[in-house]
Write a structure and sequence with these properties.
InterPro entries: Oxoglu/Fe-dep_dioxygenase_dom (IPR005123), P4HA-like (IPR045054), Pro_4_hyd_alph (IPR006620), Pro_4_hyd_alph_FE2OG_OXY (IPR044862), TPR-like_helical_dom_sf (IPR011990)
Distance between the termini: 28 Å
Helix content: 25-40%
Keywords: Dioxygenase, Endoplasmic reticulum, Glycoprotein, Iron, Metal-binding, Oxidoreductase, Vitamin C
Pfam families: 2OG-FeII_Oxy_3
Order of helices and strands: HHHHHHHEEHEEEEEHEEEEEEEEEE
Number of domains: 2
Protein name: 2OG-Fe(II) oxygenase
GO molecular function: iron ion binding; L-ascorbic acid binding; procollagen-proline 4-dioxygenase activity
Bound molecules: 2-oxoglutaric acid, fe (ii) ion
């Protein structure tokens, strides 16, 4: 069966966004939740329709009211993150509470958030002191940034949406699959920066001394046996808002191999579940630091899960972080 939303998407992809939108409007008039959801997604991403976060939030609210669980998940994240309205941490939890009986993901978010030490705005109250591993260039770690339950839940959320990881190709000016990066990944862009994910991002921000807005979408990387991320730089020339830091959190430890290695400064890092590794990619002038080449070494047994967040020098402008940003 093809739904109106699917037809609208096909039209938009064929260059007929106006017709697609008309179809969505008709379906909305019939009370079809996924027609509200799809318009909401277009409006957040500014794809097939001009970006309008407030209208997006309204459309997703409508879809949620009509019983769409995916829309309710996205809505809770927008409320938490302040997209299309002021950030409202308590309001985001109200959305989760309304859905907790019908949606195990909402219930689990609430349960894990309840165990976090957060103020009323969802800001972590804790201190996350770093142990220095290497002074210049800076590499540091913090043990137990995330609990084992939080790591497991991130993996659970990421698993169904895993895709082959890509890298940005400078000549082609787009993301491509490449033997340099053989792993799967699952990102948490704005439409899936759910309250739990937001809370994790805030904790990474607190531990790295940055603002939560400076981070590109959180990614969960999955490396099966033999998979690796060959030596590469996270900061590359030509980013006017450079990736100054990378934060990695080990989400499991029952695998062999898979060390994060920095061959030019002689570091091989491996952490326990929940440990954070943070490193500077740029020098004092925010130019890519040639010593910060690093790799995820091949996994030799088991499966490695790692959360990764690339942190920019400044929050994004209205158009996001630009062409190198991890796909939204
Ligand atoms: O898998 C690793 O150990 C490294 C990951 C990495 O380099 C990245 O996410 O940028
Ligand atoms: Fe990297």
């Amino acid at each position: 069966m093809t739904t109106s939303a699917q037809q609208a998407m096909a039209l938009a992809q064929a260059g007929q966004a106006g017709e697609g939108l008309a179809l969505l409007r008709a379906a909305q008039a019939r009370g079809e939740a996924d027609a509200f959801l799809l318009e909401g997604l277009w409006l957040i991403e500014g794809r097939f329709a001009p970006r309008d976060p407030a209208a997006a939030r309204a459309a997703l609210g409508k879809a949620a009211e009509l019983g769409h669980v995916g829309a309710a998940r996205t809505l809770a994240g927008l409320v938490a993150c302040g997209v299309g309205g002021d950030p409202d941490w308590q309001g985001a939890q109200d959305v989760l509470r309304r859905w907790a009986e019908r949606d195990a993901v909402a219930a689990q978010q609430l349960a894990l958030i309840a165990r976090m030490d957060l103020d009323a705005d969802g800001i972590p109250r804790g201190d996350y002191p770093l142990q220095v591993v290497h002074d210049d260039p800076r590499v540091a770690r913090h043990e137990g940034l995330l609990s084992a339950d939080e790591c497991d839940f991130l993996i659970t959320l990421a698993e169904p949406r895993m895709r082959r990881a890509t890298i940005f190709h400078d000549e082609l000016q787009r993301f491509v699959e490449d033997p340099v990066r053989r792993s799967d990944k699952s990102g948490f862009p704005l439409v899936s920066e759910w309250p739990f994910v937001r809370a994790i991002n805030r904790r990474i921000a607190a531990a790295t001394g940055t603002s939560v807005e400076q981070g590109e979408p959180l990614q969960v990387l999955r490396y099966a046996e033999t998979q690796e991320y060959r030596p590469h730089f996270d900061a590359v020339a030509g980013m006017d808002n450079p990736r100054i830091l990378t934060a990695l959190v080990w989400l499991n430890e029952d695998y062999a191999g898979g060390e994060t290695s920095f061959p030019d400064i002689g570091i091989e890092a491996r952490g326990k579940t929940g440990d954070l590794l943070v490193f500077a990619n740029t020098d004092a002038e925010q130019r890519p630091d040639p010593r910060m080449r690093h790799a995820g070494r091949p996994v030799t047994a088991g499966v490695k899960f790692l959360a990764s967040r690339w942190i920019r020098a400044r929050p994004p402008g209205p158009e996001g972080f630009g062409r190198h940003e991890v796909e939204r």
